[in-house]
Structures are given as C-alpha cells and as structure tokens.
Amino acid sequence: MNLRLYRPTDITVCLSIFDSNVPPISPPEERGDFERFLHEHAAQYAFQVIEVEGQVVACGGLWHCGDGSASLCWGMVERSRHRQGLGRALAVARLHQAEADPSIQRITLSTSQHTQGFYAGLGFQVVRVVADGHGAGIDAVEMERLL
C-alpha cells in the first residue's frame, strides 16, 4: 500500500471509485460536485490517494476550515476493496495530518448512516443527522472529533 498526493492524472480512477459506491454510500447527484472538486480544489485540500500494486483504490482529503477545525472530505474506497483496512488507513493518515497542525483543534465530517459506525470507531461523535441530507435514503450524519 502506498499513500501519496493526488495528481490530475488520477481524476478518471477517482471518479470510478465514486461510481463504484453509487448507491448506497454515494448519491449519484454528487458526482458533478466531486468532479469539480478534483479539477479545482484537490491540491488545496491535501487530497491523497492510496495505491495497491500500482492501482489507485482509495482517495480522500482534509480541508482546513480556518476556525480551528478541519474537515475530512471526499473519502472513499473502491467498493470491491471495502473491509480491507484501506479506509481506515486513509482516515488515520488524514487524522495524523490534522494532529500535526497546532491550529486544528477538531475534525468534522459529513457521512451517511452507512459509514457512521466506521467513523465512530475512530472516535467521532454524531452532532446532527439530516434525513435524506445526501440524497433519497442517504442521511447526512454530521460528526466531529476533538483533538
């Protein structure tokens, strides 16, 4: 497993990873937002990918909010690779990145009911749930972890 910064040439595989999770984890209507993010903001959000045997299989970023918090954004693992520890490795790498920055006191994220338990296992607490907040049948579960 190799964790590295996102490159513009990774866009197609990152979109494929998104597509592999539609539905139930990712709502199809967010694909355009993700593609725009990759084109316009991936570098400033320290977007990273995980490669296994030279193939990109996971991606995710860390957004510095500027108010003492940072947010995990667009974290996902290729569906056929779920439950292999890749999501945990990606999340832990981003948490370590945040912990190394003294200006960050808390980490937030918005996930779904399908991955809420995963993030709870990493010390995140639910602060709000919005029914269908990420699309039909996909609740927006807002979580945070204090550092």
Q: Can you put this structure into words, describing what you see?
A:
There is one protein chain. The chain is of the alpha+beta class and 147 residues long. Helix content is 27%, strand content 32%. The chain has helices at 11-20, 31-40, 86-99, 116-120, and strands at 2-5, 48-52, 55-64, 69-77, 106-111, 125-130, 140-146. It has a 7-stranded mixed beta sheet, with helices on both faces. Helix 1 runs antiparallel to helix 2. The mean pLDDT is 94.
Give keywords.
147 residues, alpha+beta, 4 helices, globular, 7-stranded mixed sheet
Give the overall pLDDT as a whole number. Answer: 94
Head-to-tail CA distance between termini: 27 Å
Portion in helices: 25-40%
Mind summarizing the main beta sheet? 7 strands, mixed
Count of helical stretches: 4
Structural class: alpha+beta
What integer value in Å does the Rg equal?
14 Å
Number of strands: 7
Question: Runs with pLDDT <50, length 5+?
Answer: none
Shape: globular
Which strand order do you get reading across the main beta sheet? 1-2-3-4-5-7-6
SSE arrangement, N to C: EHHEEEHEHEE
Strand content: 25-35%
Topology, pairings included?
Layout lengths: L1 E4 L5 H10 L10 H10 L7 E5 L2 E10 L4 E9 L8 H14 L6 E6 L4 H5 L4 E6 L9 E7 L1
Parallel strand pairs: 4-5
Antiparallel strand pairs: 1-2, 2-3, 3-4, 5-7, 6-7
